[in-house]
Specification:
The protein has 52 residues and is of the alpha+beta class. The protein has one domain (2-50). It has helices at 28-36, 42-50, and strands at 2-10, 18-26. The protein has a two-stranded antiparallel sheet with strand order 1-2.
Length: 52
């Protein structure tokens, strides 16, 4: 399992913007299979496997 971050940005002007970073886990092989079964280039799946 790997982790990614999602940014939740609130820009309620004129107040200062507020950013919340949310860490979420995901199944790499499941994501790779989904990419390979989609019209996306398989190179993206390879990158995900290699973590870049």
């Amino acid at each position: 399992m790997r982790f990614a971050f999602i940014s939740d940005i609130h820009a309620n002007l004129p107040a200062q913007p507020h950013v919340t970073m949310i860490r979420v886990g995901y199944d790499v092989e499941r994501a790779v299979r989904a990419i390979e079964e989609s019209p996306l280039p398989d190179e993206l799946a390879d990158r995900l496997r290699r973590a870049y």
